[in-house]
Structure formats: C-alpha cells, structure tokens
Amino acid sequence: MSLEKLFNPASIAIIGASEDAGKIGTVIAKNILELGFEGEVYLVNPKYDEIFGKKCYKSLSEIPASSADKINLAILAIPAKFVNQEILNNSKNIKNYVVISAGFSEIGEEGRVQEEELKKIAKEKELNILGPNCLGFIAPKIKLNASFAGGMPEAGNIAFVSQSGALAVAIMDAAKKEGTKFSSIVSVGNKMQITETEMLEFLAQDENTKVIGMYLEGIKEGEKFIEIAGKISRVKPVVILKAGKNEKTQRAISSHTGALAGDDEIVSAVFEKSGIIRANNLEEFFALLNFISFSRTVPNQKVAVITNAGGAGVLVSDAFSGKKIQLEDLTEQTKNKLREFLPAESSVENPIDLLGDARSDRYKKALEIISSVPEISSVICLLTPQEQTPVLEIAKEIIKFKDKTDKNITTVFLGGEKVEKAIAKLKQNEVCNFSFPDLAVTAIDSYSQWNEFRAIKTKTLTQMINEKRRAKVLEIIAKAKLENRQALYFGESAEVMAMYGINTVESFEIENYHGRNLGYPVVLKVDSDKVLHKTDKNGVILNIENEMNLSRAVSQMKTNFPQSHLIIQPMAKKGAELIIGIKKDEIFGPVIVYGLGGIYAEFLKTVDYLVPPLSLGQVEKSLLSGKIKFLFQGARGQKRYNVEEMAKILMGISSFALEIPEISEFDINPLIVYNNSQEATAVDVKIII
Fold first, then answer.
1. Could you tell me if 488 and 689 are in contact, meaning their C-beta atoms sit under 8 angstroms apart?
2. Which of 278, 406, 503, 628 is the most interior residue, by most CB within 10 Å?
3. Could you tell me if residue 430 is left (phi over 0), alpha (psi between -120 and 50 degrees) or otherwise beta?
4. Is 26 helix (H, G, I), strand (E, B) or coil?
C-alpha cells in the first residue's frame, strides 16, 4: 500500500479528540486545527458535542457517508483496548491509521498478543498503520502536525525518522537553534507494520527530502533492510544514529567467532555494506544532517582550510588523520596569488593562515583564490574571536561568497558570546557552522565516502544455491546428529571445506597412524564436540618429534580425555595465522568475521566483518582497506600475501554461510597463509551444528 495518503492526507479524523488540559487528544486536535493544516478535520469523541468550537461526532459512523468515504487518515488517541475494534469497524472506508495509543508489545505478553492481532487486521484489510505507541508525525510543508509534540518546525529537506518519540521532541527543540529544517518528522513507535525499511522506501520517492536521518534502537527484518537500504543509499544519503553500542547479548559462546563479533560491530558492517552514514553520537548526527542539507554539491576528497589562528589550523589538520579526505596541496601559482595580499608572516600552505589581525577582506580574497582551484570541493573557514576580529563582518562575507560558488562552504567559529550572533546569521543563511574542527572534517569525510559508495556500480547480488553440494553437507551433519554430537569431527569438516575450495591440513585418526610415514614433527589433538577450545583444555600437544614421544602423548591424551576421538596432524609450516568465522546474527543472518587468528584472536580482536551475499570485488576491497591490509601491502619489506587467494577463500565461506543455515557457529582458527607459492591451509576447523 502506498503511504502517500497517510503522510499527505487531504482529510483527517481524530478519534479521541479532546479539549481537556493535559490529554494527548487535546494536543493533537489543537496542533492540527491551529497550526495551518488546510484539509478537512473530523473530531470524534462520544463525550463531546463540540471541541474548540468545532462539531464533534460520537463515532466515525456518525460522519455523513459522503464525507466518511473521503477520510484519508484516522489518528487514534484512545485506550489500547479499544484500538483494534475501532480500526476493524472502519477498515472498509479508511485505509491509513496513526495509533498514538500505548499499551501494546511494549508492556508485555498481553500487549504483544493485541499487537499481533492488529498486525493481522492490517494485513487482511490492506491497511497502513503507523505505530502503535508513537508520537505521530509532522509534515511542515503542508502545515500538518499530526502528533502530540508542540509547534511547527520550518519546512526544509531533512526527513527525520525516530524510534523514540521523546528524542524526536528534543531534536525539534534543538532544531530551532541549529537552523535545521525538515521535510518530515516521523515517530515509528513499536514499528508493528511501518518500519524503518518502509520509511526508507517512501522517503526515497519524496521530492522534498534530500537526506534521511534515523534514530534507531533496533532494526526489524534485517535482511530486507540490507536489500532496501543498499538501493536507497544510491539515491539519497541516509544517516543513522543507532543506540545500544554497549549492549551485549548474554549467552554461552562456544566459538572464537562468537566472542569476537559483538552486535554493534555487525550493525556497523551492515551499514557499510548498505552505504549508510553512521553517526556516533547526537552531536555528530546533527552535524551530518545539517551539512548535507546545506551542501551545494557532494564533496570529493580535496579540502581547503582558511583560518585566522595557527593553533586552530593545527587542530583541524590533526582532524584529517585517519580520514579519506585530505588537505589539498596548493600549487605555487595559487600560493603566489595568496602572497600578493597576505602579510609575509602568513602561511600560504593548507591550512591558509590569515593571521590574528585578519579582517573580512582577507577572508574574501582567500576564498576567491581558492574558488579558482577546481580540484577543491569543500572549504572550511575557521575563526577565533580575537580582539581585532570583526566576527559579524567576516560571517557576512562568507555568506556572500557561499551564494556565488558551487563549492561547499562550512565554518568553524570557535568561542561563545563573541561569535553567537555571527553563528546565528550563518545558520539563517544556510551556512553550516560546526562547534569544533573535528566535527566539520568528519561530516565532509562521511558525505564524501557516501559519494564514493554510490559511484560504484554493482549488480544486485544473489546467492546461487548449489543444491547438490548442500545435500552432501546436510548428509554429513545428519550423521553427526544421529550420534548426538554438537560438532563435526575434523575429518568431516575437512570434507565440507573441500567442497567450498578450502584446503585443510592432512589428518589421521589415532587408530590408523601405525605404519604411516608421518613426517615428524606432528601434532596430537583431541577431536571432540565437548572440547572446542583445545589449547585452553590441554587438548593439543605440539612438536612431537618421534614415534616414542607420540606413543607417550597418546597415552596421556587418552587418560585426560577417555573415549574421545584423537587425531594426528603434521606440524604446519610457519606463516601468518588468520581466523575466519561465521556469526549467526538474529536480525541480519550470517556475518563473516576474519582477521588475525591463533590463540590470541579473542584478545587482539583485529578483525573485520563482511555481510553476504558478496562480490569478489567487495571482498578484495575489504582485505585491502581493513585491519589486516598490511599483509597484502608487504609491510616491513616482507613479501606480500596473496589477496586473490584470500578473497576466494572468503567467497567460499560466504557460499557456505548462505547454503547451510543449519550450522549454529563456525570458525577456522588458524588458517595459515603464506607469502610464497604454498597454498593457504586450515589447521583447525569447528563446525558447530
């Protein structure tokens, strides 16, 4: 169902309208009647004949049929126990609803049952329902405040979707000071039917929306979200502030991967895959939205900084550390033009230091010269209010220049009372001012990276399931389950890995090693679903040099692990030890974790994340830009490791993750990779079922 009539209605019915002070129905009625909405409004409440001088109907059925048929939207601010029946009674004529009422899944089992029933009604009757337990929404362009938040924000191009009604109110209040202007503000509440994904789809088509901002505490239907967000992010920038960074799921973790992949790291990987700009805090969220809203063009990676304070210039230079954007090296021609009007003590490098006595003319001339450098797309004007600084005049000069250039002009006016009026003037004229230099650099960098994301043309990725291979793997898993095992033996795991193009170390069961030319030294391991962390449990003995020592080791291991499966492997040649794992996320499905492995994997946590399905190009990009990129760059004069081989291994694991959802956890630790012609080898493989 289209959401157009819900968020852009011509006629509204308010069920539970009131004029009693303190009631939500009173605030909603006043907002809609008094803030400029020009559509038809019908008030419904059996307690009143009239509200605010306007006729009030006892029920929706009392509204004349000719008018009732034309109601686009019904807003419900009544006790939760009456909501379902009210919607069911009117579902034939009214197709769009906002349920303000609380008392659904957020209160426990009874409310959850009622919410499921309402969801069923919505599906069967083909209805759109925002909420329940939500603030409502605001559409400033049509002067519609269909919420119980006061006031009417200025109309602009930022769409803000919030899972928290209270935060939406706070942001609206802060927006007045920041000069933030909205195309819409939507509180999604319990997200029973209209979730962040549906809102993304709707707002992508909204011509008034330039940037979509979201505050989320959780994400519903993760795999659908990834698919839709990836498409929308190629059309419009999406900025998300996701709460719950430190919240960890408390459960028994049986693999290294489970210990490595926290929920928030997975969210970050999902956002990166989908091209979403992630804000780390509320201040950064505001900064990103305002910068994108005011920007004239999408920035490239070249930036110039103009400042009247050397120290502040150093601070802004530091903020570029670790960012993809960079301070552009100015040509001698550009520097000479700057020298023509700047004092000898000025710096004509980038940042350009105009000195503390700089007046508006120096800012004006510097901006004009920088505007002629085509490679630069963004300019940061930094100012400290020194005694001789005409702060307001400089602000006015920056505003004039902004209106005649296609470059992004941003400001960082540091200070308090001395810069207050100038900052207000800048914001009134849609110049984005940042409180601190690092915020400005972060905003430009994030927007620039979004531009890179949308520039990369990728086909929609789908995973082709190899049914023949899947059947073989499931047969191996079924055998293990019949034996009441929670994990595959190494030999079984090796057989599975071979199907996905991954080489494993040679292995012999203890009963079969006699008479074999083992090629000492060897390793003796316990191979049991009861001993998954072998090193911690003394379930592995390394560097066994001869048959006599092997016999002793076998006797010792049998004593320590009676009736357990034991295996012998040749000692692998030294190489770089990596870990590859699969984390089964409840929301987003399988996520691949890879990085430095070995016994310290959980402590080092030098890992990156990939969300299947994947392309070979995406995997190679991750390897070359991630935390183990040094392996593929030939660090400290070492020969580079084979990025193509590692990418193919990760692609194999991606296929395994999507083809065999029956596994609960998986990791290879270590996978030993070599920077010579030797093939990478999985030394230990855990497939937990």
1. yes
2. 628
3. left
4. helix
Which tokens hold the place of 29? 């009625």
Residue 212 · residue 236 · CB < 8 Å: yes
Instruction: Provide the Cα torsion 254, 257, 258, 264; round to 10°.
Output: 170
- The sign of the CA dihedral 26, 30, 32, 38 is positive
User: How far apart, in whole angstroms, are the C-alpha atoms of residue 536 and residue 539?
Assistant: 8
614 and 628 Cβ atoms separated by less than 8 Å: no
**Closest Cα partner for 304 from 380, 408, 363?**
380
Cα radius of gyration (the chain): 31
- pLDDT one-digit tens code per residue, 137-193: 999 999 999 999 999 999 999 999 999 888 899 888 888 888 899 999 999 999 999
Helix, strand, coil abundance in the chain, percent, nearest 5: 40, 20, 40
Tracing tokens 């599906």 back to the chain, one arrives at: 123
- In order of their start, the domains of the chain are 297-455 (3.40.50.261), 467-570 (3.30.1490.20), 576-688 (3.30.470.20)
DSSP letters for 313-367: HHHHHHHTTT-S-EEPPPPHHHHHHHHTTS-TTSB-SSSEE--TT--HHHHHHHH
Residue among 271, 607, 203, 633 nearest 449 (CA): 271
**Which of 112, 18, 17 lies closest to 74 in space, CA to CA?**
17
CB contact at 8 A, 245 and 264: yes
Return the HEC string of 593-638.
EEEECCCCHHHHCCEEEECCCCCHHHHHHHHHHCCCHHHHCCHHHC
Per residue in 339-392, pLDDT (tens digit) is: 999 999 999 999 999 999 999 999 999 999 999 999 999 999 999 999 899 999
What's the rounded Cα separation, in Å, for the pair 618 and 568? 37
Q: Where are the beta strands (DSSP E) in 392-467?
A: 408-413, 432-433
Task: Put the strands of the sheet holding 566-570 in their side by side order.
Answer: 508-509, 566-570, 522-526, 540-544
Q: Specify the pLDDT at position 253.
A: 34
- The model carries a pTM of 0.90
Q: Which of 407, 316, 422 is nearest to 368 (CA)?
A: 407
Which of the residue ranges 256-270, 304-318, 546-560 would you say has the lowest mean pLDDT?
256-270
